[in-house]
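Changelog-adjacent note: as of this version, every example in the card shows the full chain rather than a window. The one below runs 234 residues end to end.
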Amino acid sequence: MSLSERLNVEGVETTPPRVTVRVWELPVRITHWVIFLAVVVLSVTGYYIGRPFVIVGSDPQFLMGWMRSIHFVAAWVMIAAILARLLWSLVGNRWSHWDQFIPVSRDRRTGGGEVTKYYLFMRRKPPAEIGHNPLAGLTYSAVYVMFGVQIITGLALMSLEDPAGILYNLTGWVFDIGSIPTARLIHHLIMWLTWGFVVHHVYSAVLIDMEEKNGLISSIITGRKEVEVSRLEE
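Full-length structure tokens:
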């Protein structure tokens, strides 16, 4: 009988052996922070464009022009980061793969139910996961769908500056579905939904980090988490 087995028999709680694993690759971490910073810039500038809350100098149009320019640049940066992240979901490691976001496997679907039980206080500890848990992955999929709608409506609104341009030819169909004010409303509402997700995302990350003590919060910077050896064998 091993030492750990003898300790368990005697009622002494032992900590399962852990190993440090690089879960989040550099492209995942970079795109994560680029998207977050872009959301911050887009939210501030977008809110200003809709409701100017500062007027500087005798020509407020000058500040508005800057806000719009920054908004457009941040939008293209965010689009590039999202496309890069989607590409990496095809070529990255197992924890960044697309099937971590869409529960195609039975294990992921079953795991989603167990995570839901944890959030509903029906189980004491969350299921052990190395990467995204199934429910989180599905939530991120919904967020990316929201981003897609926001990008399309945003590009359509941007294209109004040149109705004869290529951008309008690509996105002008949006206004065949709904009016310009409707597109603006949807674009604006998704901003608030995104910030609702951010609040929940941070709360959940802190909660799981405290429960599992695996370095989840710092992992989005370092890329590394402390994982039980037994999890690597699954």
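Structural remarks: The chain has a mean pLDDT of 86.
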